[in-house]
Amino acid sequence: MHEPVGPAFLVYLETSGLATLMRQSQWLYPLVEIAHILGFVTLVGSVAMLDLRLLGCSRSLPVSGMARHLLRWSLGSLLLVVPSGLMMFSAHATEFADNTAFRVKMLLLVTAAANALWFHRTSFRSVADWNTGVPPPLASRVAAGVSLALWIGVIGCGRLIAYL
Question: What one-character DSSP code corresponds to residue 2?
Fold first, then answer.
């Protein structure tokens, strides 16, 4: 009987040169973790600013301009978040794969991405009608509230990984 591909790949990943270096170096893992946190601060901060605007804060600021500006920061932050996250995961792949907080964090990340995609493909298309001075449509406000809740969950689960 063959072993499932998933666990074998996790072991392969965890025994790679990068993963070994991440575990053996006194400074590499902490520096990578700092980069991950800085990227997440930028990502969640920029998302939260747009979400708060959609929820009614700073109605004089145009939503379209904020979205255009903040989306660059969000996407740019992924240049830190994704590689640093993969590096940390590689160092403890088998452990993280079984960690409930890690699994929930990944589920929340996928859900947050789907929520953002849904928002941009639906209600954001009519942003010219509610760009400044008027409340965004209910669908936009719901998407913003859901987004904030999901990102708070991602942050919480990220912290809990070390304790569960």
Answer: P
Query: Cβ distance 41 to 72 under 8 Å?
Result: no
Average pLDDT, whole number, for the chain?
Answer: 95
pLDDT tens digits for range 5-16: 588 999 999 999
Distance CA 84, CA 79 (A): 9
**Distance between CA atoms of residues 91 and 112, nearest Å:** 25
- Do the Cβ atoms of 119 and 150 come closer than 8 Å? no
Cβ atoms of 74 and 43 within 8 Å: the answer is yes
Task: Band the pLDDT of 4: cuts 50, 70, 90.
Answer: low
Q: Which residue has the tokens 């669908």?
A: 139
Q: Residue 16: which region, alpha, beta or left (left: phi > 0; alpha: psi -120 to 50)?
A: beta
pLDDT at 18: 96
Q: Quick one: tokens of 114? A: 């789907």
Q: How far apart are CA 88 and CA 95, in angstroms?
A: 11
Token reading at 100: 């409930």
128 by Cβ neighbours in 10 Å (0-12 / 13-18 / 19+) ranks as exposed
